[in-house]
Amino acid sequence: MNYELSHLQALEAESIHIMREVAAEFERPVLLFSGGKDSVVVLHLARKAFHPCKLPFPVMHVDTGHNFPEVLDYRDAMIEELDARLVVASVQESIDNGRVVEQTGPRASRNQLQTTTLLDAIEEHGFDAAFGGARRDEEKARAKERVYSFRDEFGQWDPKNQRPELWSLYNGRHRPGEHIRIFPISNWTELDIWQYVATENITLPAIYFAHKRSVFERDGMLLADSEFITRTDGEELFEARVRYRTLGDASCTGAVESDADTLEKVIAEVAGTRITERGATRADDRVSEAAMEDRKKEGYF
Amino acid sequence: MELLRFATAGSVDDGKSTLIGRLLYDTKTIFEDQLEAVERTSQQMGTDYTNLALLTDGLRAEREQGITIDVAYRYFATPKRKFIIADTPGHVQYTRNMVTGASTADLALVLLDARKGVLEQSRRHAFLASLLGIPHLVLCVNKMDLVDYDEAVFERLKDEFRAFATRLDVTDLTFIPVSALHGDNVVERSANMPWYEGSALLHHLEEVHIASDRNMIDARMPVQYVLRPQSDEYHDYRGYAGRISGGVFKPGDDVVVLPSGFETTISTIDTYDGPVEEAFAPMSVAVSLADDLDVSRGDMICRPHNRPTVGQDIDAMICWLTEAGQLSARQKFGLKHTTRSVRAMVSEVQYRLDVNTLHRDESASALGLNEIGRVMLRTTQPLLYDEYRRNRDTGSFILIDETSGATVAAGMILYRGA
Asked: Are residues B241 and A162, on separate chains, in Cβ contact within 8 Å?
């Protein structure tokens, strides 16, 4: 026995430690689940952290209504397998109730509307901790966010007034109405996620692997033909072999051209890639240099 | 592949950002879209070079003011190791950020400017690394290109720094002459300094031996959470979930649960992937015991003949982290140590330490923002602790303001009378 842990084992041990701290110290945690690979890994880690118990918290899906059908099927299968409780917070309901107004035009997206739906659901259910799958390597505002990210009674993040986070001593103090976002995979990179998915034999939604799809090009990204997006003149559909690197609202998540139809091929592709996953595939982060920071301040994931 | 966490501290002038930029760039970690965004922003800000600091200065306020205000975590990997950099600002007003970044680091990287010698700032960074118990310290003598790659300059700085380091608690000290700007001795060994026989920085980071830094002697597991499935399959199972903080546990080991003092043996050590034969730091596991005891969060499982100190009077070095108020005698705080949360009162401020000169000011009665000093505390419940130098997990705590909930201080426990 050489008493050494691999980097994946060390990251996993850290994440499990964080999730157990939250379950022990908070009254009503919830795990945010989108079906994206990061939230799939967080769910897998939760299962490992509390084995042989069932998850000691529910799983919440903020449903934009603009879903890839494969992802909804995947979500339901996972919930059944884990015998977990699913809470669905629906952006459509927020629109129907007049809480938010649907954007219009060809670039309409429900991505921003999710924030209101999420915060309303957190308040309605009285959740005081919400696990998310954000990673620090994703984006530079996230590089400075704590594992325990404090949100005030408006759900806002104040990047200049974050609690120092030392050793593995996490401070979960909050008052009623405030909550804390928990990011157990803060220290993982995109490549770590893929290597872990392979090591742990985790099933992902099929759209992460190369498949044929009818797409069109916008802003250098490939967007899928769907009922949720209006194409403008000159945006011609064509067949391409693509896969997704991130999963978000179908209206703003782009695919990349790829032949990687197995985990091994995806890992090789990720290891050799020269563009960040958000840069390649997320229209929502292209609005400005600080687009993510601004959305996070308002209460985004 | 092993994980190495290292901390850097420094300001723009000493070339820290260039050095990190060089490590990331030469290990192909900087992505094209990130580089383009940085180039675009550099042009908008009117600089005529690509300012690699913009890669890490991610917050709007930081870019507007051209400063780093917070710890930024950066990630890169080589075929040998995965690295996590805690990149912190260097000025004295950011001591709290340095302390935060250093708290989890295996190695600290301190920069010297070859032209300027051992400045106050470098001494402070080295001192904080030693205070936070970072086992490995690397001194990069940067800007060697500006002193004609002169061996004599390097040797003189080495001697000067070594003389200072005798006052620190540093076991592994390495000196590397580099030019971050030109890449000398960063990723590749430099042809400009044939007199230097050591490794390039990246090679050193890949090879430095860290597996022995953990405490493998004092078996400690703070109980985090009790797993009681109460299902048909696991009807009587009760697992004490926690992360090993030191030593090695095996099924069959005699153990004692503190603070109750009940002795029993370990039945199984379980994980989702099945039982394990040994558990050691920093594994997260669940331990089941042979006897049905009352064990809960905040308790500590250890060996009967190797126990942590159990006590309510704590001596510690404290770093005060907030501009809201000062630390002084009679104040009360929340205190979190391992998985145990108690209340604590300051009995006495013994001295304040000047982080630049290491002078002890025994007339001080309070600690303000970024100040470090030796403090005595009294807790409402006993802590189960080791000296910080012996175990960073069981020797560290944070103080929490009970009104605002903010983390206001970091504490490192000393032996009484030490």
From this structure: no
Per DSSP, the residues of chain A read ------HHHHHHHHHHHHHHHHHHH-SSEEEE--SSHHHHHHHHHHHHHHTTSPPSS-EEEEE-S---HHHHHHHHHHHHHHT--EEEEEHHHHHHTTSS----STT--STTTHHHHHHHHHHHHT-SEEE----TTS-TTGGG--SEEEE-TT----GGGPPP-BTTB------TT-EEEE-TTTT--HHHHHHHHHHTT----GGGS-EEEEEEEETTEEEE--TT----TT---EEEEEEESS---TTTBPEEE----SHHHHHHHHHH--S-HHHHHBGGG-S-TTHHHHHHHHT--
**What local confidence, expressed as pLDDT, does residue A275 receive?**
67
Q: Give the pLDDT confidence score for residue B175 in this predicted structure.
A: 97
Class of domain A7-192+290-298: alpha beta
- Whether residues B57 and B194 fall in one domain: yes
Give chain B positions within 8 Å (CB) of A143. Answer: 56, 58, 72-74
Among B175, B196, B213, identify where a domain stops: B213
Q: Do B235 and B367 lie in a common domain?
A: no
Distance from CA of A145 to the nearest CA of B (A): 9
Which residue in chain B is spatially nearest to A142 when comparing CA positions?
B58
ipTM: 0.93
Same domain? B273 vs B339: no
**A216-239 residue pLDDT tens:** 988 878 888 887 888 888 888 999
Say whether both B352 and B376 belong to one domain.
yes
CB contact under 8 A, B31 and A273: yes
